[in-house]
Amino acid sequence: MRRPIMAGNWKMYKNARETAEFIERFKPLVSKMDGCEIVVFPAAINIPAAVAAAGDSNVGVGGQNIYWGKEGAFTGEISADMLHAAGAGWVLVGHSERRHTVCHEADADVLKKTQAALAAGLKPVVCVGERLEEHKAGKTGEVLVRQFAAGVAGLTEEQFAQIVIAYEPVWAIGTGQTATPEIASSAHQLIRSEAEKRFGTEAANRLRILYGGSVKPDNIDGLMRQPEIDGALVGGASLDPESFFKIVSVAAPAR
Length: 255
Ligand code: PGA
What we know:
alpha/beta; TIM Barrel; eight-stranded parallel β-barrel; 12 helices; 15% strand; binds 2-phosphoglycolic acid
C-alpha cells in the first residue's frame, strides 16, 4: 500500500518568524499522525527557520525549487546541495508557476532538476498538469504524456523509485475550482500507465501521485477516497495550521 503524503506549498508567503510560528502551532496537532508523511515547502530563505522549528517531529521540510548546476555563476539560484545542507529533505520540481506563470521552465529543465535533487539526497515532487486551454481542448492526456516523456522518462529505474509526482491541473490552482475526484483520478491513472510502460508494473504501482489544485478541508475527503490519489499538494489552504491540520487528518482514516 502506498503511504499518503500531505504537502503544503507556501509559495511566496510567510517570513521566517511566521514560518516558525506556523510549525510550532502545527506540530502538536499532528504529532500522533503516523498514517501519512507530512511536508511543508516554505520559501527557501525560511528553510533554516522551518527546520529548526520542526526539530525531530514528523513534519518534513522541502524547498520550492532548485537550479540543476552544482555551483557557479547562476545569480539568484540555489543548488540542490545548498538546500540539502540547510536541512531540507524534499523539493518541488516543475511547479506550474515556474513552468508557465513566472519562469518559463521547459519540460527538459524538470528532468535536470529532478536528477540534481536526487544526486543531493533530496526527494523530488515532480509537478505536472495541463493549462485551462489544454483542458478545454481535451488535451490533458497529450500534455501529461509529453511532460512525463520529457521530465520523468529519462530517469533510471533507481531514480524513478525515489520520486513523487504531483498532478496539478493549472486551471485548478488558486482558482477555487478543484478537479472532481473522478477527473483527478483518471489523470492519475494515465500518469501511472505511462510509468508502467517505461518502468514496469511494480515500479508504477509503488509511485505516489499527489493531487494539487484548490484542495480545501471540505473537498479533501472525496479526493482521498480515490485509490489512485496518494495525497495532496496544498497551496492556499496549507497556510493556516488548523486548516492544513484538517486536510492532513483526512489522509489516514480515509485509507
Ligand atoms: P492551491 O495551490 O491549493 O492554492 O490551488 C496548489 C499548488 O499550487 O500547489
